[in-house]
Amino acid sequence: MADHYEVLGVSREATTDEIKKAYRRLARELHPDVNPGADASERFKEVTHAYDVLSDAKQRQQYDMGGSGGMGGAGFGGFGDIFDTFFGGGQTQRGPKSRRERGQDALLRVEVDLDEVIFGTHRDLEVDTAVLCETCQGSCSQPGTSPITCDICHGSGQIQRAVRSLLGNVMTSSPCGSCRGYGTIIVSPCVTCQGQGRVRARRTVPVDIPAGVDTGLRLQMPGSGEIGQAGGPHGDLYLEIKVRNHEIFSRNGDDLLCTLDVQMTDAILGVSTTIQALDGDVDLDLKPGTQSSEVLTIKGRGITKLRGNGRGDLRIGIQVVTPTKLDHREKELIKSFAAGRKQQDTQLGHFQQGLFSKLRDKFLG
Length: 365
Description:
The protein is of the alpha+beta class. The chain has helices spanning 4-8, 16-30, 38-54, 57-64, 79-87, 114-119, 264-269, 328-339, 354-364; strands at residues 106-112, 121-132, 148-149, 158-165, 168-175, 184-185, 198-209, 218-221, 237-243, 250-252, 255-263, 271-277, 280-286, 295-298, 314-321.
């Protein structure tokens, strides 16, 4: 590490005023806004840190006794803060800024039916957004004309001014008020887009919605948002999905759930039947003695997984329907059936809120 006194070019007996004068002289010579070279930038950092240490009596005493002089990665302080004030802390923009800007992102809400979620679906969405101006093709100027160089900043987009400071006169930069920092002036703006390079219009965006999406999911479509000013790059389009409720089927993750009403006699004797699922017919075989709240699982007839392979299952909860209106002959048959069976005592059980409570435990268990 270089000796702080050597960096400032002063002796170890130098007074505070001598140290300050040496620093001001070197700072005017080495500051990045005056001397943009990489070597000068490193020298300026060394000079500033050396001054920070030697201008503070306590730090200078520690340094003279062999200490590090407050290096510790603390960065610039003292007069470094003054330079930040006058020179913008290294954030001064160099050169003119571009008229081209990235377009804004857009959010659309898309509703899909549950059956569309199984395999995915396609939508052609109509979007009101900013599109490229066909008249000027994003140049912002009337066809046949072009921007001219600003005669105030001479194309730099910046205005430099001399400001008096503790270090004498220093130069500061600020955006040119005439061209607003662009360095050029559009003398003949496009009459179609008023010099913006884009216009509002309705366009069609084709969207492939993948299988397995669920309510609340957002899909990102990079580059499908509005175009930026002066033909700048497009923003992104985000689709927020809402899955409509189905009158029969519901969803649990990648599984589809429904219930099937079965007549008491079919539950006793067993029956084969066919039901209409969201993706076609499903053949069912109910074994004799089927009970309410039993769940039949049809593998691979649920929703296609959003991330991964395969599909969920179709889960069908059974509800045995007890007849409420019987004619005389039917009542006699039931009585005869009951008389032929061994009488069983009624038994208490845990309270259940009907069939759906039982099914819920089996569906979600």
